[in-house]
């Protein structure tokens, strides 16, 4: 489809540009013609549901943040993807209100799909949408007393448009579901003359090709499927496709490649998108599969589908998770903060700090968190407290679209296995483990066996190895052999967090598309990024997330001087802090000073800073030009 005649079609469109419309030039009609300025990538948003099937509006703010972060231009509410036809009128109203309330501050366009119900309900929803001043309404045809002719369909659309006369109207053409299949060229010709606010349709690529020469300047075809590359090649660069929710960056890159004339690149990216859609859709009902994939890919809890749609069962969900991992579509990666474990003045784990902490990280653009790692003093936390921490971090992080990795190691294997099972049940995105600390593995085979024993208690959850010989004394293993065996024998093996840069370099060529190497030593951050590493887990992310992000973003774009400048500043500040004591102890004491998040002091057996050391630490940071957010001392 991409290769055959699309370039010719695009040239044809340029030679015969679309008809332009002037306000009031669509024939003899009444009413005010609306302005329609919606284009680009639109997401037909899922309707978040609780496990009991109730609409869950609390997820919507985080969902909007995800879309905004990935440059989505607008949303369609209550479409097929959003299960609009399965919602009560009041639910659809509340849902639209919730989306509008977050879309406006985000400068996101909103189209309300009002069709799919009895005509009185459709008209009520259209009037409600107009009161909310959305950017347009969309409607399906009547679903039972189906229009059989273009004139019958036009009459229906006129009735709907009259209920919201100031809003643009888009027709939702989906014959496979609605059973209404009229001549779309006749529909566009007739609607353009009889409906002042008719602005186009959501339809497939075949329809787009049929009506391209009929489109007025203010009319559009929103492509309704994932055929992004051929659509843009044909001149239709606006789409409302389910995949925009899950893979917005991939969709954006396909569109940009076509616009830049890089057709070969667009073809490769489109093939990847096709493979993803095929893998997801093969697991069950399309909406149910996509909704489950949305959770697995992004971490946003959109919940199950509503009856009569059938949610994926445990086997299907596991199969889908494995397929996404194989296609490198887990939501694990990027800049991950190894969070400090908050404690009170008595050294007791303080869960009340976690919501504020997670919000701070999300506000700073961090992609995820690692719980109970070295910075989090994981090996000093007992099993009961670990469970409480797992629940607290997962509950708050999922609402903020942060991925969650749980580090389990540093304890007897039975406890480790128990926590692995608990982490999977709680919804962790991945688990991580240190090696056995007393009966240390001396060969790669022994280390893989140990990880197998952990992984079998969380069979659906990706697992990472934590390579930090300076703490574990497990060194000298053949890490290439370890990687090979782990890949062969552990289906969920995701990769490693490596505190040894030489090991990371050694393994770089071994990494498959669905695997990761997380760089853990800030000393090598800039060199690592400049050599192609993009996944980072290091303690400095807690204190200086913006600096770390600037190193990664500038280095990955080839701005070497800027990346190195930011890297040197980060290392300078780390040096300022660690002059007053052990690195973790000093960095934890500095956390409230630079972020305002009071995570408390380090717990035994590590040694906390004295009061004098903390006073000097604050003064050193001031001297280094750091704004102190939360000073504990008065001059």
UniProtKB/TrEMBL annotation:
Molecular function GO terms recorded: N-acetylneuraminate lyase activity
Q: Which GO terms describe its cellular component?
A: cytoplasm
As for subcellular location, the record says: Cytoplasm
Which leading EC class covers this enzyme? Answer: lyase
* Predominant location: cytoplasm
Q: Which PROSITE patterns match?
A: DHDPS_1 (PS00665)
Task: List the catalytic activities from the record.
Answer: aceneuramate = aldehydo-N-acetyl-D-mannosamine + pyruvate
Could you tell me the keywords of this UniProt record?
Carbohydrate metabolism, Cytoplasm, Lyase, Schiff base
UniProt key word Cytoplasm: yes
State which pathway it belongs to. Answer: Amino-sugar metabolism; N-acetylneuraminate degradation
Report if keyword Lyase is assigned: yes
* Documented EC number(s): 4.1.3.3
Q: Extract the InterPro entries matched here.
A: Aldolase_TIM, DapA-like, Schiff_base-form_aldolases_CS
What family does the Swiss-Prot or TrEMBL record give for this protein? Belongs to the DapA family. NanA subfamily.
The record's note on quaternary structure and interaction partners says: Homotetramer.
Q: What is this protein called?
A: N-acetylneuraminate lyase
* Organism for this UniProt entry: Spodoptera frugiperda
